[in-house]
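Thread amino acids onto this structure.
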């Protein structure tokens, strides 16, 4: 959500920020609507004050036995106009709709342009594995081991679902515990078991509504299934005023996630990369505005540390200005998949600045200050289980079709070193 005061004072800067998103100038129309709204509100306030004065005049005139018919007639006209203005004020939400539908302004150091052209690889870690055989894709290995079944899942739920059995089901459970243990014990996040069903205000707060409703699943009685634990965790501070001393708040959670993949027809139709239901461990930070850039680097290091412990080669990509609706700045972690001979996204770590906080009305007060300020929010995948399973299978596949378990994960697999 954008600050109308900032747009009033910096219309050129606001339009320049939208231009980085590939969006035409917006400030002139926004300020026109803002002026109309302020004019209406001023007239309404003046008339309400006048109405209050009429009530006093009528009371005084009646107490003295005077004629109040003239004042009553004038008051009637004023009340009629107040009713018109209040109705117009309630119905005219165009300014709010525009402000809610426009994306965040990218940070100054974000590369400008489309994702395909402007994304920047800023780091590569690990050596790509070398095989004495042609590496297979994860679903080929999983299906051959009879531990991954898309066909049966399709009978039950349709496309983009899977059954995992035996060692792979255990691997998913082990990864969730491994991620949570690292996030809490090593990185200092507080583990949360959050709601999976949320209301409109929650998905509006984190930016999925109103623009991306088609990407979500909704129940028949008005709840939304969370597309990520970001929604539940970030909204913990909705409508709250925190103290400066409480910041930062750091939360982590493992949850199922549900996405319609409305814009992904024909993409990644095989395998575990893009499903309607998947498990994910999420990181959320609620932080002081002066500390959000530092927190962003910290969160990225947490996600990188997990990939390193799992012995998975990856690259860090700084996303371009046209990526991500709520984000000021986003790093993607792309893991190497030998079967696809390509890097694929496995995590995004994003700094949203005060964009989500404005939508949620989440604020804090500095020590000894009277006024409040909006907090900054950050989110990161840490990590999605299905994509991590795909990466482990492909990077640690062996000639006999078995899968080597990374050393750091063996204790979470009850000592199992190979899935075969």
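Threaded sequence (420 positions):
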């Amino acid at each position: 959500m954008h600050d109308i005061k900032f747009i009033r004072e910096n219309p050129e800067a606001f339009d320049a920020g939208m231009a980085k998103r590939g969006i035409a100038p917006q400030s002139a129309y926004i300020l026109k609507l803002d002026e109309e709204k302020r004019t209406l509100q001023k007239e309404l306030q003046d008339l309400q004050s006048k109405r209050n004065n009429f009530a006093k005049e009528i009371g005084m005139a009646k107490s003295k036995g005077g004629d109040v018919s003239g004042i009553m007639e004038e008051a009637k006209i004023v009340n009629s106009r107040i009713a018109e203005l209040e109705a117009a004020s309630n119905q005219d939400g165009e300014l709010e709709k525009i402000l809610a539908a426009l994306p965040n302004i990218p940070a100054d150091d974000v590369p400008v342009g489309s994702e395909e052209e402007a994304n920047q690889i800023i780091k590569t870690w690990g050596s790509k594995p070398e095989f004495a055989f042609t590496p297979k894709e994860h679903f080929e290995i999983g299906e051959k081991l009879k531990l991954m079944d898309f066909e049966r899942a399709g009978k039950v739920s349709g496309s983009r679902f899977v059954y995992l059995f035996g060692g792979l089901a255990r691997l998913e459970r082990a990864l969730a515990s491994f991620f949570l243990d690292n996030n809490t014990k090593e990185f200092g996040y507080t583990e949360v078991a959050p709601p999976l069903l949320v209301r409109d205000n929650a998905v509006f707060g984190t930016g999925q509504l109103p623009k991306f409703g088609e990407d979500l699943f909704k129940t028949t009685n008005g709840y939304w299934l969370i597309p990520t634990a970001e929604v539940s965790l970030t909204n913990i501070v909705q409508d709250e005023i925190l103290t400066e001393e409480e910041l930062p708040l750091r939360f982590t959670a493992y949850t199922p996630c549900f996405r319609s993949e409305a814009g992904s027809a024909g993409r990644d139709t095989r395998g575990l990369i893009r499903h309607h239901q998947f498990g994910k461990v999420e990181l959320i930070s609620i932080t002081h505005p002066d500390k959000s850039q530092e927190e962003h680097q910290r969160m990225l290091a947490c996600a990188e540390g997990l990939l390193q412990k799992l012995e998975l080669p990856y690259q860090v990509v700084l996303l371009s200005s046209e990526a991500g609706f709520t984000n000021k700045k986003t790093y993607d972690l792309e893991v190497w998949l030998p079967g696809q001979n390509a890097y694929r996204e496995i995590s995004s770590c994003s700094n949203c600045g005060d964009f989500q906080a404005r939508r949620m009305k989440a604020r804090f007060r500095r020590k000894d200050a009277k006024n409040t300020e909006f907090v900054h929010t950050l989110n990161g995948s840490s990590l999605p289980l299905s994509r991590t399973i795909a990466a482990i299978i492909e990077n640690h596949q062996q000639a006999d079709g078995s899968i080597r378990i990374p050393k750091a994960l063996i204790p979470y697999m009850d000592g199992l070193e190979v899935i075969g």
